[in-house]
Specification:
Length: 416
């Protein structure tokens, strides 16, 4: 795919975004419903293409977590369809008056939500990103250019083609959803140079991909690097709840960014809670690496300094015994990635102290870290999770893909 082709895609997206942002909310919702119907109609072809992509990835020696992310199961396909259906029915994020007042002069001033414009999504492995990104962007009136990984090219092109055609048939601009159809890495570099037409880049994938995009992009980037997520089991934690939440946080899906990577156990709860939690984790095949104090309670491998700052994306969990909530907060502040961190406690005061002290995009109280996604937060489809502070933080859904403009209504008002 040539430089000229990427530039033309960006130009087409700019025009499509301009038109898409003027469509009524119900028209954009109808386009998303049509996209979901097209996905269902193409299911057999998509699953066949995905099986071929998975086979090629395995033959090429792609890492296990990436193969798992690439693979489309019945559950994943249903999830993709459900997310499109959910985002279609969300309130329209555009045209919302977020501030408004009337000046003493009678001038009416409003701040109104509008699309960002054109969004470039660069991602690895997961075909569900294709549907999530297209759905969230359509809902928020943004044109999108998708660039998935070469390992998922067959799958992503089929999905994108089905959705783009359906959206256009439902009245959306023809180029509102586009996908880069080459595995050539230079296409990514060229996309990052389209600052005249693309308003924001959102990468999803491994740390090296995100670091490259952040370093090379001429366009603002919304991102997160690592998901080094923690659960702190407080001294008063309910044992059954603690075991259930920790196991779900770690084991529901180990290869994702909001999976648990470090367990912190209060010293006052270690003897009581750690053996049962360890047994529950080991029953799920999780390898434990602990600090010296944790190893006096439960037999496990020794943790190194490197373990505290490692995103395993695998059935491995580091374990540390801490002296109270302040040490837990200090550990998270030192080693965490500001993604998702949680506390398990029966004390509202402890929960409030943890929430105030932990500066992460999502803070969970008596809940699994795996819930820190757009679907579980009621945002429908999301395009990723941000640990930045500008422009969005946490799950990035349709509302986070808007900005605003000021509108003033006068009656011949003049500056005096």
């Amino acid at each position: 795919m040539s430089t000229q082709t990427i530039e033309q895609m960006a130009k087409d997206a700019r025009e499509a975004g301009r038109l898409l942002g003027t469509l009524p909310g119900e028209a954009r919702a109808a386009a998303i419903r049509a996209m979901g119907a097209a996905l269902a109609a193409k299911k057999a072809d998509i699953m066949t293409a995905n099986a071929a992509d998975v086979a090629d990835a395995q033959a090429a020696g792609l890492a296990g977590p990436l193969v798992q992310r690439l693979k489309l199961s019945e559950k994943t396909f249903t999830y993709m369809s459900d997310r499109l259906a959910e985002v279609a029915e969300l309130p329209d994020p555009l045209g919302v008056v977020t501030r408004g007042h009337v000046r003493p002069t009678g001038l009416r001033v409003q701040r109104v939500s509008v699309p960002l414009g054109v969004i470039g999504i660069i991602y690895e492995s997961r075909p569900n990103v294709t549907t999530d990104a297209a759905g969230a962007c359509m809902k928020s009136g943004n044109a999108v250019i998708l660039r998935g990984g070469s390992e998922a090219l067959r799958t992503n092109v089929l999905i994108a083609n089905a959705m783009a055609g359906a959206a256009a048939s439902a009245g959306a601009p023809e180029k509102a959803i586009q996908i880069v159809r080459t595995p050539d890495r230079e296409a990514v570099g060229e996309l990052l140079r389209q600052e005249d037409y693309i308003d924001v880049i959102i990468p999803r994938g491994g740390k090296s991909l995100i670091q490259r995009i952040a370093a090379e992009s001429r366009i603002p980037v919304i991102k997160h690097y690592d998901g080094i997520c923690h659960q702190y089991v407080a001294a008063d934690a309910d044992l059954d709840m603690a075991a259930a939440v920790v196991v779900n946080s770690k084991c529901e899906k180990v290869e994702v960014c909001n999976a648990l990577e470090t367990l912190l156990v209060d010293a006052m709860a270690a003897e009581r809670a750690l053996p049962a939690i360890a047994d529950a984790l080991r029953a799920q095949g999780v390898e434990l690496r602990g600090c010296p104090r944790a190893r006096t309670v439960v037999d496990m491998l020794p943790a190194t300094e490197e373990d505290w700052s490692t995103e395993y994306l695998a059935p491995i969990l580091s374990v540390k015994v801490v002296d109270g909530i302040e040490e837990a907060i200090a550990h998270i502040t030192t080693y965490g990635s500001a993604h998702t961190d949680g506390i398990i406690t029966g004390s509202l005061a402890l929960a409030d102290r943890f929430v105030a002290g932990v500066d992460s995009a999502s803070v969970m109280v008596n809940a699994s870290t795996r819930l820190s996604g757009g679907g579980d937060y009621g945002q429908g489809a999301v395009v990723g999770i941000s640990t930045d502070r500008l422009h969005a933080r946490g799950p990035v859904g349709p509302e986070e893909l808007t900005t605003y403009k000021w509108v003033a209504y006068g009656a011949g008002h003049l500056r005096k």
